[in-house]
From TrEMBL, chains A, B:
Entry protein name: Homoserine kinase
The organism's place on the tree of life at top rank: Bacteria
UniProt family annotation: Belongs to the GHMP kinase family. Homoserine kinase subfamily.
Domain GHMP kinase N-terminal: 66-148
Keywords annotated in UniProt: Amino-acid biosynthesis, ATP-binding, Cytoplasm, Kinase, Nucleotide-binding, Threonine biosynthesis, Transferase
Domain GHMP kinase C-terminal span(s) in chain numbering: 216-282
Entry's Gene Ontology molecular function annotations: homoserine kinase activity
Lineage, highest ranks first: Bacteria, Pseudomonadati, Bacteroidota, Cytophagia, Cytophagales
Record's subcellular location: Cytoplasm
InterPro entries per record: GHMP_kinase_C_dom (IPR013750), GHMP_kinase_C_sf (IPR036554), GHMP_kinase_N_dom (IPR006204), Homoserine_kinase (IPR000870), Ribosomal_Su5_D2-typ_SF (IPR020568), Ribsml_uS5_D2-typ_fold_subgr (IPR014721)
EC number: 2.7.1.39
Coarse class of the protein's main subcellular location: cytoplasm
UniProt-listed HAMAP family: Homoser_kinase (MF_00384)
Enzyme class (EC, first level): transferase
Length: 310, 310
């Protein structure tokens, strides 16, 4: 077994239109780079090789908390030296905290001869998400660990994640520099939804799963629409409606809010379309005088993975 | 083109657990037998070769109404002689009216050189359902026409039905002789549902689609549960909870209310299990002093189909 591994852990989209709290999709890039080294000294020591001033106290760092949860299940006394280089900007709405937590436990599992299942790794990494957002949720963790398109069917009584293949797709994400706290994004959600609207939503959920599994791009496009969560969050993200209109005009298949926002994602058939769609969405925010970052990349078929062993 | 055709049009399950108003599944049997013959006399004449005293006025007969809707789209002046032998008992909760309506339009399409698409046939047959239940709905019509497992993603702005393969499965259906009007079944539905419960429901919807497409029987079983509609209808169907308990004990994968009830379906891996499950459910109603019929049959890979041309 190696003493040290290098892991790339990717950005992810959660919710994915109609699949609030359930769907996730892995990107191939950007990714966090994680170096994890076995140590005889118990506990976790963290260094951040990036400019984001994230906490290095393991009890307050998402990757540290995930590793501490994993270490509780390891009988031997051991510890880890963890170096994180964030390739995913924190708060960018593409699963930054999930990438660090997932990458750390995938790295630890490699150092331990892969003794844990992916479901167990999700369980550990969710402890990191709980520190980041106050809630144990797996919608970004699942694609960060399994890759492709994921369905979090249940967390109780057991974690039940369905990992599905995704057809070739290019993602364009625009991250407008709007302050939007996850807690505020949660506050606008309706407590109840009309039954008829819920039915339309799960009809789209069924269509999106079938569309991904059959690589039917038109069906994916028709099924992405979210009738429940996006309408509630629309007022929080100026430019969202216009960005969607221009993205579709530029050839996007469809899209929506990434996670709890403010980032917006669009799925596309080709890299060229994704670039045009990213530029079109960026233009909307430029006109509004809101700075933004645009990412374009292919869907990732693998989740966090070891790229080097020493 | 033939002058006369014989069509078998199968029983179907709608809702299918978590997929209220969206999912459907075709059975191979029982089926209605429909003889349709071209006539130079406009309009539709109907004969029923069964003991159910169904209306023979085409404007009040589900198959007649469906044929009249189709005839409106045929430029030439023509009519049909229709003979129906119901193999599916009306009111048995396995899509009896849908089978007659779907079978009639599939037969007419064969007499017309299959000039209509399956989506158009669904549209015509839904007119028959509207006469039977007061609402245009396609959850039984879709599997009766496409076969296999179907998703009614939308009826507006266009009919959008996704036809998916179903893995080998045996269905056991018990039809207790309880009077339960569709309108009463509708009345108990909640107007709104808590968002958290809607999320759990669409997580199961996603799981069930993936389970069918991957032929993953365990996933199908875990995903069938309906958190919204079945709890509301449970008080209307005495014996439902106990029938489910005994069906699962006898080896069923899972199940629920068929359509709006009172029939109960269970999916099974083998014919032997389906027989045992049917007997176990029948036993529950026998103990309650409620007469019931039990059907056991395989899932149908085709919908209504021509079996003879003259």
């Amino acid at each position: 077994m190696p003493d040290s591994v290098l892991v790339h852990s990717p950005a992810t989209l959660s919710n994915l239109g109609c699949g609030f709290d359930v769907f996730g999709l892995a990107l191939a890039a950007p990714y966090d780079t994680i170096r994890l080294t076995r140590s005889a000294t118990p506990g976790v020591r963290i260094q951040h090789l990036d400019p984001y001033n994230l906490p290095t106290d393991p009890a307050r760092n998402v990757a540290g908390v995930a590793l501490l949860a994993l270490l509780k299940q390891v009988p031997e006394e051991m510890g880890f030296e963890l170096e994180i280089t964030k390739g995913i900007k924190p708060g960018s709405g593409v699963g930054s905290s999930a990438a660090s937590a997932a990458g750390a436990v995938v790295a630890a599992n490699a150092l331990l001869g892969n003794c844990f299942s992916k479901m167990q790794l999700v369980d550990f990494a969710m402890e990191g998400e709980a520190v980041a957002s106050g809630a144990r949720h797996a919608d970004n963790i699942a694609p960060a660990i399994f890759g492709g398109f994921t369905v979090v069917r249940a967390l109780e009584p057991a974690i039940d994640i369905i990992a599905l293949p995704a057809p070739p797709l290019w993602v364009a994400v625009v991250h407008p520099q709007i302050e939007l706290k996850t807690s505020d994004s949660r506050k606008v959600l309706p407590a109840t939804v009309p039954l008829g609207l819920a039915v339309r939503q799960w009809a789209n959920v069924a269509g999106l799963v079938a569309g991904f599994m059959m690589a039917d791009y038109d069906l994916i496009g028709r099924s992405l629409d979210d009738y429940i969560v996006e309408p509630a969050r629309l007022p929080l993200i100026p430019g969202l409606a216009e960005a969607r209109t221009r993205a579709l005009a530029a050839g996007a298949i469809g899209g929506g809010i990434s996670g709890s926002g403010p980032s917006i994602f669009m799925l596309n058939r080709t890299e060229a379309t994704a670039q045009a769609v990213g530029a079109a969405m960026g233009g909307v925010f430029a006109e509004l005088g809101i700075a933004c970052n645009v990412y374009v990349g292919p869907v990732g078929t693998t989740g966090a993975r070891v790229v080097e062993e020493d």
